[in-house]
Specification:
By secondary structure, the chain is of the alpha+beta class. It is built from five helices and seven strands; from the N terminus they run βααβββαβαββα. It has a seven-stranded mixed sheet, with helices on both faces. Strand 4, helix 3 and strand 5 form a beta-alpha-beta unit. The longest helix has 14 residues. The protein is globular. It starts with 14 loop residues before the first strand and ends with a helix.
Length: about 190
């Protein structure tokens, strides 16, 4: 079984991930047009239509991006993606994630990470995350689930200038995971 970066079956009680389509721009931009969503992001202007269009084009070209919908209401809540699969290291990145403020602090981000990690660990041993150096909110969220900061470097975003990012890692052998994620890691280790 090969690693499909855009499966259409990733779903749980809170969210459903659907492969991002060109026709999703308007619905996704409605969520992204809130300046406060990007307040701590390296590109604070992504709420502007032209700048968000660039993000959206990069997401489509990645062939690993998802439109994230609320399972119960079908409302668009945000976007995330798999990218930079590294066969030699047996690793993948998860990132370019944003969620509308209406869904903050309600378990949606955790549900998204759980769903994506659960699927990824069927194929890889390591999952990395790039998080902006000044995005304290996202850094705290990823640390809560047991990710370890392992590096920092300039990341070149599609069509944008490079920005300093911190690199976080969750691996199958990571014993510091949040209990919910440690269970995933342990189950996937037994499968492989």
């Amino acid at each position: 079984m090969s690693f499909n970066l855009q499966p259409s079956f990733l779903k749980n009680d809170l969210i459903h991930l659907l492969p991002l389509q060109e026709t999703d721009f308007s619905a996704l931009y409605k969520v992204a047009s809130d300046p406060l969503v990007w307040e701590q992001h390296p590109n604070k202007l992504r709420y502007q239509s032209a700048i968000f269009q660039n993000y959206f084009e990069g997401a489509l070209l990645s062939k690993g991006a998802f439109l994230v919908r609320d399972t119960k209401t079908n409302e668009v809540i945000g976007c995330s993606r798999y990218y930079d699969f590294n066969e030699n290291e047996n690793a993948i990145l998860i990132g370019y994630t944003f969620i509308g403020r209406k869904f903050w602090g309600k378990g949606y981000n955790k549900a998204l990470k759980k769903l994506m990690l659960d699927y990824a660990f069927q194929f890889v041993d390591k999952v990395y995350f790039h998080i902006g150096a000044f995005n304290i909110r996202s850094q705290k969220a990823i640390e809560k689930i047991g990710a370890q900061k392992v590096d920092e470097f300039e990341v070149e975003y599609y069509g944008e200038e490079s920005k300093l990012n911190f690199v976080y890692l969750i691996s199958k052998t990571n014993n510091n995971c949040h209990p919910m994620f440690a269970k995933i890691v342990n189950q996937q280790s037994k499968i492989k």
